[in-house]
Amino acid sequence: MSVVFDPQFIPADARLYLRPEAFVDTPVGRDGTVARLAGGLLWFAAYELIALVGSTRVAQTSIPVAALPALIANVSREQAERLRALVAAISAPRAPIVLPGRTIRLDQPQVMGILNRTPDSFSDGGANTDDDAAAQAGFDMAAAGAAIIDVGGESTRPGAPTVWEGDEIARVRPVIERLAASGTAVSIDTRKAGVMESALAAGAGIVNDVAALAWDDRALGVVAAAGCPVVLMHTPDPSAGPHARPTYADVLVEVYDWLEARIDAVVAGGVDRRTILIDPGIGFAKSLGDNLALLNGLAMFHGLGCGIVLGASRKRLIGALSNEAPVAERLGGSVTLAIHGADRGAQILRVHDVPETVQALRVWRGLKDAGLTSRRD
């Protein structure tokens, strides 16, 4: 049934957002009524339109894909321009991650395997303290299907101490060198410019920064000069660390706006927008309710036009929803959240449990492929 929305209910000064919804199994036979999500394997039949004045939602409704042009024709010029830009960003194919010797396409979900070189990480602290053993763990994840190995030398768990730059480099560089020499794609998980420089020189091709290049004054310049892909994660106040807990009036919109502003700042600093990926920062400075709102609203972040990285593996929210399951017993929840991310179009899933997640995604991909070849009589 067609849904008609009266644009008179949208104040001319309202800021508008679009979240893809009503996903369909196949676009076959649905010409003009569905749109493709980020050039990937998902199609959707409607947008959730959210209108805000200040921090208050003044409108929230579903708009069929086919009805959106009529809405655009009846809102203010500024609102129409924003809606057209959002529609284009939501459907545009994401640029691949181009690294020396290899290209990682983002038209289907990819797995990023987590390799911590820390004694105190919340999940696997102390598990990979030997250089050779850590490198082997990375090789094993790549063999199991991880497209990228994310190497980190400083814990981001609540209360973790700041690690001296030299110690962090000593932890990550030998492993990155071994992995890169084998042709494995490596990202460096750090907020420190010196660690970024050392890791990139050792063969890492991607910077993954929980502070979105805002903790270290030199970080933005390092990434701009390197021309490498970068993951910008949401942290409301990078200078205060990743777990300073604010109060959100509307967490989905506020995280979206923060990332939008941060992307603009990073691009102004010399980073190519096509190399930027974003991460909503699940578990960082958010309550359980905040995390669930972000996960349920994840598809809205496609309006930023960047690839989405989702890191929810073994996070505290899984324990909170499953009788306080300890970290080692969160596999089921981790895979569930990874598939949820894939269903909302996340291009990179950052996980600890690579073989299990890869298997789940292969089954997921099989279902999507079957939808693309189905017939509707």
Q: Which value, in Å, is the CA radius of gyration?
A: 21 Å
Sequence of secondary-structure elements: EEEEHHEEEHEHEHEHEHEHEHHEH
- Please name the CATH architecture of the largest domain: Alpha-Beta Barrel
- The number of distinct helices, counting runs of at least 4 residues, comes to 11
Instruction: Report how far apart the termini are.
Output: 20 Å
Helix content: 25-40%
Structural class: alpha/beta
**Assigned CATH superfamily of the largest domain:** Dihydropteroate synthase-like
Low-confidence stretches: none
- Tell me the strand order in the biggest sheet: 7-8-9-10-11-12-13-14
Largest sheet: 8 strands, parallel, barrel
Topology, number of strands:
14
Q: Could you say which overall geometry the principal axes of the C-alpha atoms support?
A: globular
The name of the CATH topology of the largest domain is: TIM Barrel
Domain count, please report it. 2
Note down, in words, how this protein is organized.
This protein folds into two domains: 7-91, no CATH class; 97-371, Alpha-Beta Barrel (TIM Barrel), CATH 3.20.20. It is 35% helix and 20% strand. The model has no long low-confidence stretch (mean pLDDT 92). The strands form three sheets. An eight-stranded parallel beta barrel has the order 7-8-9-10-11-12-13-14, surrounded by six helices. Strands 1, 2, 3 and 4 form a four-stranded antiparallel beta sheet that branches. A two-stranded antiparallel ribbon has the order 5-6. It has eleven helices and 14 strands. By secondary structure, it is of the alpha/beta class. It has helices at 68-72, 77-91, 131-143, 165-181, 193-202, 219-226, 251-268, 288-296, 316-320, 331-343, 354-372, and strands spanning 15-24, 35-36, 43-53, 56-64, 97-99, 102-104, 110-116, 148-152, 186-189, 206-209, 230-233, 276-279, 307-310, 348-351.
